[in-house]
Amino acid sequence: QVQLVESGGGLVQPGGSLRLSCAASGFTFSTFAMSWYRQAPGKERELVAGITRAGDNKNYADSVKGRFTISRDNAKNTVYLQMNDLKPDDTAVYYCVKGGMRRYWGQGTQVTVSS
Fold it and tell me: Residue 18's pLDDT is what?
């Protein structure tokens, strides 16, 4: 079955960095686009970044452009989200999402940006 396991979240000070990872299994990873979403307390889930199957095209929410970078390693069945210059507004649970006709979500990893 499809499994998406996020890791790398934690508590970081404003201006700091984190790298999230999502280990995928149960499907042919290289044939699906992947995305990162986030949900802050009291807010709806929002798309943070997406990446195509080969990693040749990426898109970002305006709020993270220039600070976050999505990437993938198809040999390792893993998608990453490098987050730099973190701000308190980036505090949220971050989810890895498999694309396709049926979406699958990981369990999420908490990112807290606070001094």
Answer: 98
